[in-house]
Specification:
Elements lengths: L7 E10 L2 E9 L20 H23 L7 E5 L6 H12 L2 E2 L3 E2 L8 H11 L2 E9 L3 E8 L4 E5 L2 E5 L5 E5 L11 E4 L14 H14 L8 E6 L5 E6 L4 E5 L4 H16 L8 E3 L7 E2 L1
Parallel strand pairs: 3-7, 8-11, 11-12, 14-15
Antiparallel strand pairs: 1-2, 4-5, 6-7, 8-9, 9-10, 12-13, 13-14, 15-16
Length: 295
């Protein structure tokens, strides 16, 4: 059995149409009555004088604390310590840091304040100019900055047209260099004639070709009396590294073949067959099996 429910008939109208009669009724369920809305208004509450006084003092202390932390000279940056070595002059990093300290963002965020100083901005500015293996900036109370860095190591000198760049093992450009400033050839000079040029400070030539040129550079040091390397050339020839010498023909190497085997063929053709005619040749190609081609 269902429980009985009480319904009130609010309105009832009888309309006659022909022989039929219609009645419209509206019902009101007492279980679903509208709830009264209540609003919380602080204006209805009265705070005591003591409460108002405490709130005022607290607000004043907060304002004073903010002013002291962010705008007093006590937390102004007065000292910069730069730790690192290599080719980057620490004084240049310190100067760039002082330039940022003297700059105020919208005149309301003083960079000279230790808490407001933007480490992220400094790291971005330094990284745009230099290449780091690691870079860390620490804030030391009450007003010191400590900058530690490790510079990326040079691996090669990359040439595109008449421009020369230092690059690391991953093909990332570190800095531009004037060839006249290179006193010792401690790094292989690799000329890019492939048509794939630097993009976003990154060498776009296949890395395996660069690695092979680096290995050739190391191996040829064992034959320094026989060959004086000028540079390595990467062009459109597939799986090929070309070696130009200070005197003599250009040597073509196959990057899919062992270096030692190709150098052995080169030594045989140079010392046993060409002899005095060696320097008159344009190129020697040792890329294919046991064969050697020259012109």
């Amino acid at each position: 059995m269902f429980p009985k429910r009480n319904f009130k008939i609010v309105n009832r109208k009888i309309r006659k149409k022909g022989k039929l009669s219609y009645s419209s009724k509206s019902y009101k369920n007492p279980f679903f009555s509208k709830k009264k809305r209540t609003s919380l208004r602080f204006s209805n509450y009265k705070f005591s004088l003591k409460t108002k006084l405490i709130a005022g003092i607290a607000s004043a202390l907060i304002v004073l604390a903010v002013l002291f932390l962010f705008y007093s000279n006590y937390f102004s940056i007065k000292k910069i310590v730069v730790q690192g070595g290599g080719r980057i002059d620490p004084a240049q990093i310190e100067n760039m840091t002082w330039q940022q300290i003297d700059d105020n963002f919208l005149a309301i965020i003083p960079q000279k304040n230790l808490f407001l100083f933007s480490k992220k901005k400094l790291i971005k500015n330094l990284s745009n100019k230099y290449s780091f293996e690691s870079l860390a900036i620490s804030k030391k109370l009450p007003g010191s900055l400590e900058i530690k860095y490790k510079e990326k190591e040079y691996a090669i000198i990359w040439q595109e047209n008449e421009n020369y760049f230092y690059a690391d093992d991953y093909g990332l450009i570190i800095s531009e260099v004037n060839l006249l400033e290179i006193s010792q050839k401690d790094y292989p000079i690799i000329k890019n004639d492939s048509g794939n040029f630097i993009m976003d400070k990154k060498i776009t030539v296949e890395n395996s070709l660069i690695e092979y040129a680096k290995q050739l550079f190391i191996k040829f040091k064992e034959y320094n009396s026989e060959f004086k390397i000028e540079r390595f050339v990467l062009d459109s020839d597939v799986d090929t590294v070309k070696v130009t010498l200070e005197s003599g023909p250009t040597i073509y190497f196959n990057t899919k073949e062992e270096i030692e085997k190709q150098i052995s063929k080169l030594l045989v053709i140079k010392n046993e067959k060409l002899k005095e005619d060696y320097n008159s040749k344009t190129y020697i190609d040792v890329r294919y099996g046991d064969s050697v081609y020259y012109r």
